[in-house]
Amino acid sequence: MADAYRIAIVGSGPAGLSAAARAAQLGVSHILIEKTDHLSDTIYKYQKGKHVMATPSQLVLRSDMDFEAGKREVVLGTWDEQTAGHDVNVRLNSEVKAVEGDAGNFRITFADGETVSAENIILAIGTQGNPNLVRCPVDDGAVVQYTLDDPGEYVDEHITIIGGGDAGIENALGLAADPEQNNSVTLVNRGPEFATAKGANVKALLAAGDAGRISILTETTASHIGTGEITFDTRDGETKIRCDRVIARMGSAPPRAFVEACGAEFSGPDRNAFPVLSPTFESSKKGVYVIGALAGYPLIKHCMNQGHDVVEFINGNTTLKPADEPILEAKFKNLPGRKSVDEWLEFLRSSVTILEPMTPLQMREFMLDSEVRAYRRGETLFDRADPGSSLFAIASGSVLVQVDADDPSKTVGIECGSIVGEVGLVSGRRRGSTVVAAEDSICVEIPRMAALKLQSQVPPARDAITRIATERQLLQMFGSGLTKEDIAEIVDSAEIMTIKAGEAIIEEGDTGIDLYVIRSGSMVVEKMVGRKPVFLSYLPAGSYVGEMAVLDDTPRTATVRAAIKSEVIKVDGHAFRALLEKNPELLARARSDVEARENVNNFVEAKKDSFSGVVDMYSSISSFLVENGIGEATDVLLIDENLCVGCDNCEKACADSHEGLSRLNREAGRTYAHLHVPTSCRHCEHPHCMADCPPNAIHRGDDGEVFIDDTCIGCGNCQRNCPYGVIRMEKVPPPKPSLLSWLFFGSGPGPGEPEHDWIEERVAEDTPKQAIKCDMCAGIKGGPACVRACPTGAAIRVAPEEFLSVARLETEQG
Predict the structure, then answer these.
(1) Domain boundaries, the chain
(2) I need a labelling partner for 559 at 20 to 30 A (CA). Which of 156, 232, 243, 293 fits?
């Protein structure tokens, strides 16, 4: 007859250990089942010497097992001792093959054929045994692994870590810790930010990168893993590096087949979906409970608290509240209505589209990082031009977006369940509109990092945010009084595509009729004249292309390719054609755009003989500018060296307008023919410098300028992330004496940036450095000082889309 227990706990990680210890303390008959020959296999497989963190710090630990931040070996030693001390009934080397039966009478079958029975099952098996695998091609002989035991075993190797979560960062730090091992370590992250990693890990990684111990590649994915090398798709194109071994730490997914075989249902079909659970951790299968990482809570403190609580619930404790209850109560206390924490969490989850896919347990963790607030009718959520990259979710009521800065009465309503502020989330730009409550409303403010984490961990939420952002971008572009119902078919069929730098979305001569909307990045348009590609124009984010074929069913007249890594929305041409037929105003606008592009094509064809040299020169210059970062610029300083006399008035004026420190280096930078691109900020569409600014000190102003405010802490992350070398770390000197004082009394260093010695004499040694960069002279009457100070007109500031166009060449040629 099989042994019988009240509780069987499958998995001896932090959650399972804590559950077993609580059962032992309560005197509840139990068995803790572990398939390996040791406890807590996930922690056991951490790299040797790894520092295990005890976060979140504000959460109290509720467990019969102790846990403090410390080395892996110390943590495991403590748990081994306390497991024995609590008389936990442990069964090692026992892999569970099946769980059958119903609540009160489950039968567990092991790999060796033996069985035990239990009234209740607690699944605490985690997800690490089901890692996400690399998807790119891997050559025979290439080394790819998904765990790292001892970093000390690797010497004189070129190692690439794929994944910017905690596991990937900690592996990279471990491999680069000892300089005598002489490893060359590269960490690759798909996004620009490390959204799922702990702040302390990110800080340590960036410090190691700054010290040259680790190479960090963001916005990068592996496209091919070969023997001895790896190929990447980066923001700026394809690149290869030497690589002896790849360690892929790209997260993991629940062991779905086993959990479903136990009778538990999942929240959705996605690979990363989690089981549907009640607030007491019970699954859809009565008597089967799920805790820990398998429930969507990967942090050790959360896991251990759940292990303690689930046994209390099974033992009949109906009054126990989760450990995070006081924190959440404080967040909800000022909201109208008398709801419990669980009721508020369910209300918010069920009321907001992007939160619906989350489980109650995920909602608890999510709300620890977010804020919720009630707004009175007419109260402002945020103002136009406010800094801010958080997302607002409307849980009740509705809001109004003031679309006209000069007329607040012109508004667009956003209904309950939707979101607002997605532009700031995507780009970090200042708020584009003022948003006010249309009626008494409740909104959840989701900080940028929490929103990125939400999109990373809850794919349906990511898809919902993408759909809303796509819908609004199309409505904004097409205008003509369209509603979301008008474009529903287009949005349903739209496809978001990531395009590598240099890759074409349209090839000249093709017969396709799809339309492409540039979501991020930029494109260049080229036409073959003779056997040479001639640069026609530059298309920034927010543009669309391909409408000529939609209207006329003609072959593509030009090639459109990505200037930098970009995202486009591919719109079905047939659906767009149907929309045009129903909307005469939109059709007329599309006809006008087509006519303008046909004029450019006709101009190039007509001038290809008489102005072939001019066209070739223009095309070469345009290509040069795109290659040097103009492809992602929104505003750029250019100098015509045919006119420049080298007076340096531009640098002096810049310094005199900015605390004596010039943001411009006229001589630095590259030149093609007579056109020079000096070292000056490009004010990128998606600024690299914003990617990791701890105090969120970098913003975009009303006129598109990217600037750094006084909250800068001098960490240097922006300087490291800028690919164009336009950010400096400097101690800000005291104000210089006035120009008159210098002229008449010789006081001060005179116009321009002071000599280094003058600054050093007047700035204390412990004065912290700050990041400085061009801010386009925002707030200074007359605009950029560098342009105003140029006596010959050699310096110009332009938006690339205005400068990089054959239409400009047509004007110049008469």
Answers:
(1) 3-129+253-323, 144-248, 333-477, 488-609, 635-798
(2) 232
